[in-house]
Amino acid sequence: MEERVRTMLEGHGIELLDPHHGVQAGQDPEAGYWPILTPDLILKGHRVAVEVDPTGSPDGPAGHDMKRAADEKRNRLMAEAGWTLVHLRLGLGQGSAIGPFDVETESVSVTVAAIDALAEAVRTAIEGSSGAVRFIPKNPSPQRKQASRLGALGQHKYEDGWYVSWLQDSGERARYALLDGGRNLYAAVGWDLEFVADVGLDSFPRKRWRSELEAFFSEDPFPLPASRFPWGSEFFVGEHDLNGRLIKLRISAEEHTFTANVPEVTEFTGSALIADGKVCAELHPEAVRLGWELTTVEACQSRLGEYLRIQLVRNAG
Length: 317
What we know:
This protein is an alpha+beta fold. It contains five helices and 19 strands. It is elongated, with a radius of gyration of 29 Å. Residues 57-62 have low confidence and may be disordered.
């Protein structure tokens, strides 16, 4: 049960220490020494811990309905050492709380609603705000789960990323790709991908991606606006349009090489191609801001004539 609570809290972005860590508590006057206590879950970087308190069962060991005095003593010893204990009181009902941040549930099992309330209580304890006991009643009758409009996340065959789809109100499925470790969402436009948004899933554990995507798609109108790049359709601006040569370019790539026919180029800078002293094509200012620059412009010859091989490199720093 503790492992289930651990996994679900981590899904809320709460970082926990590995099991079996101890806390040096205050003095126990009855025993005459300073005990080392081992709460069920200890937060990383904060003096907050979580106890999972199940009720007893007829054929099992006594639960926390029989250990209230011991639990209250444990709270006091931890508080004297500067720690806050948050209890998840399972199946013990309303009025069973030990401390001001506790979550009381009628259900004897760990539910999503209980964990949501526990995560909120933990964050309140971290902030040092006044506590409020949270009570989660038992669901009177099981509700049929509504089918998710979000399709399964599958590994992308051609990109280093994942497929994802969303069922629109029209009944049609819009298809997307998550790239860059889950940071950026792209829309499938024919065989191409166009940028939609920075959804920031790279900062969340994979188990949380579905809930984050559900929220994102539910809040935004359809169809979602998409463009070749976050700022529009042009990576290069100027007299010569080179953007048709950049279909496979992703803004988070480290480098990209392509070929183009740009006549009479005599020199180049980190951001521009120059023909006879005049800029004929240059990087969009937003591309420059992201760290992109021209590093190599090489004149080549084929049976069809001269062309340029151009290398772009992104300075991620």
